[in-house]
Design goal:
Blueprint: H1 3-12, H2 16-27, H3 53-62, H4 65-69, H5 88-105, H6 110-119, H7 128-138, H8 145-156, H9 167-174, H10 185-208, H11 219-225, H12 229-244, H13 254-272, H14 281-297, H15 304-311, H16 316-326, H17 329-340
Amino acid sequence: MGAEAASSAERAYMTIRESLEQWEKEYLSPCAALSMHSRGRSREEEQCDIRPVFQRDRDRILHSKAFRRLKDKTQVFLTPEGDHYRTRLTHTLEVSQNARTIAKALRLNEDLVEAIALGHDLGHTPFGHAGERALDRVCPYGFAHNQQSVRTVEHLEKGGQGLNLTFEVKDGILNHQTSGNPSTLEGKIVRLSDKIAYIHHDMDDAIRGGILTEKDIPKEIGDVIGYTTGERLDHFIHDIVTASYGKDDICMSPPVAQAMTRLRQFMTYNVYHNPVAKSEESKAEMLMETLYDYYLHNIDVLPKEFRKMLEAGDHREVVVCDYIGAMTDRFAIAKYEEIYIPKSWDR
């Protein structure tokens, strides 16, 4: 029997998952993270006969309660009135799309980048980074949303069982910030895609909100990466693909990387620290700190699943952060009003 015939005979007995794994091995870059070579899960489980492990992780994240809550969590502008401002959910979807575009062009694992991208902000607090700062300030164990995202998928989802994701997905989620060092190229794609996404859409939202105009972009930045949000997004993605092609790394060309750094500095000064855009953040931080103090001293009113975590030995400060950090903006405000705002007397 010839080699081609033997190969065809072998494929006939493969499951769909095994066929997809074989396709990855034959088609993807030698630098790609292959599903068949995953370092596995914390708890062993039977393989799916249709989906490779990273696709399965993507699906678990997509169907999680934490993912659904992202639709009502702040990205930059607190509880904006307009329908077209980004939320934490739309940010996550834009990160995923950027990452998949880059991964496909570089022949890296799209399932892995999508799983990491969809899960990278699951641990974000209500009110964006204002809520994160508040919990980090009051909790003696600290609070960082990347670590909380991992805690969410490992311990908080599915009634404490977690999602039992693969090592590579959890590693990418944990290391998606600038200071992180993902162990896969797919994780490095998400780390850059996150920055590209928020620079792009935060600028777009700031223009929509009348805080900036396209004309405000400094010439030394615009001349390198463009003068419109669309031009800049396109330039970033093309540059990453070109600079990374054929390399065992994900990078930008030096001029574009420098322009990106300058643009982030420009955004920090003009948007992220803008007194108009951020005028309500001190109230949000106060609300988070007040809820933390209340639940810390009224632990018995926590939902049952969180009280079980205390019985299992988790620190009460951490469990309170788990509960408050998982809230949406709207739910946190409603809880604050329920606890602290007097209601009209009615019989």
